[in-house]
Amino acid sequence: MTLSTFKRAALPVMVTLALAGCSLAPKYERPSAPVPGQYPGLSEPQNKGQQLAGVRYSADLGWSEFFNDPQLKALISLALANNRDMRVAVERIQEARALYGIAQSDRLPTVGIGGNAKITRNPPELRAGGPDSASVSRYYQAGVGMTSFELDFFGRVKNLTEAAYQQYLATEQASRTVHINLVAQIAEAYFRLRTTQQLQSLTQKTLESRQNTYNLVQARFNAGVASALDLSQAKSQLDSVRADSASMQRAQAQALNALQLLLGMEIPANLPNAAVFGRDQVLAAIPVGLPADLLERRPDIMAAENALLAANANIGAARAAFFPNISITGLLGFASPQLGGLFGGSNRFWQFSPQLQVPIFSGGSLKGNLDLAKARSNIAVSQYEKAIQTAFREVADALAGEATYDQQLAALRSLEASASETLRLATLRYETGIDSFLQVQTAEVALYTTQQTFYQTGMEALMNRVELYKALGGGWLETTASKPSSLVSQ
Description:
By secondary structure, this protein is α+β, with helices and mostly antiparallel strands. The protein has helices at residues 3-18, 49-53, 63-66, 70-82, 84-105, 156-222, 228-263, 294-297, 299-320, 365-431, 437-471, and strands at 111-121, 136-151, 325-336, 348-357. The chain has 2 domains: 1-20 and 112-151 and 326-358, Outer membrane efflux proteins (OEP) (Single Sheet); 31-107 and 152-323 and 365-471, Outer membrane efflux proteins (OEP) (Up-down Bundle). A 4-stranded antiparallel β-sheet has the order 1-2-3-4, with helices on one face.
């Protein structure tokens, strides 16, 4: 066979490859977002954070600009490099990429070089030339071959490849979600640790104050001025704070352990100095935008849409299974009864083997596969819509917190001042014999409880702002000037 003859034989292959763009997948239309067009309580698409951050979307705001504490930034960097969940997420991308590569390879023929030999000894009765002919026959073959290759007229392989590609994209988006969640988790664990340290400091100061109060009541009791009830009440107050001190030590150790687990390594001793713990740990405000922005900014929503696109492609593959399957196998090379003359010019050999399979009866498996693909597509639509609704709620909840935490903290500051003054007056009236120690005890409890509530609420306010940043898709970029790595295109 001449090269031109082989080209003519391969022409149908090239033509069918050119026609393989046919697809039976349904035309994809993005489902409408099942949420309002505006977040509750916002009259403008953006808030003042846009001017503060200098960016339009929170997802474009780098976490190194959002967080202001140098120690927290260092911890986030270490966690992104050492956290085991993050490592698994990165490897999941490699796994999905490899699966996509395998699926994509099915769209191209597999060509290889090989050879084989067949040496047979036949009994005299089975020899082609009669009993006196040679008892051993030899056959040698070598050349370039193409294994069974499906001509994708109806887009079955193409749609399976598209489904694998969309799954790969969904996996990459899932990795980004892990990245964003890890940044937020480190920040929240750090804020919880710093809050327990503040509460421990408060407990120590309160313990010293209660000890002084107890000493005062003890002295008055020894002098016959205070009653045994006063002394017992002062002792109860002192023991209560001692119990709180032990509880705070435990909470601080647990917060440290949680941070170290997220970090994926022992917390280094050479971290940068921590900033003063307070409201300036994070930016005062960030851009919010519209709910529709979440569709292009939240990686979990984009992953859900990739899964929907994959399900849509699987419908096309299931439909294509109803149509004929055409495959070809080819070989171009040399064949000879003698190994020494195998590659002689007169021993050229070619073989072209098309195969057609038409489904007639499959026991309902083809229809079942199509129904299964459609059901999974409907599930994917619902999951996509649920992802949007969940994102909307998370942003709305965080915005509700932003609208109320400042007022709550301001009220607690005022309450703390009032409680402190009440304790001062109650102590003065007790020392002068006007009131009983019960008034002092009540005032001490009120002040201590208010101070604890203030620290807890301050921590919740910080975490709420982190949750808003995360809910808007922030935390993927390190710096605002950076851009996320572009996804590979098909």
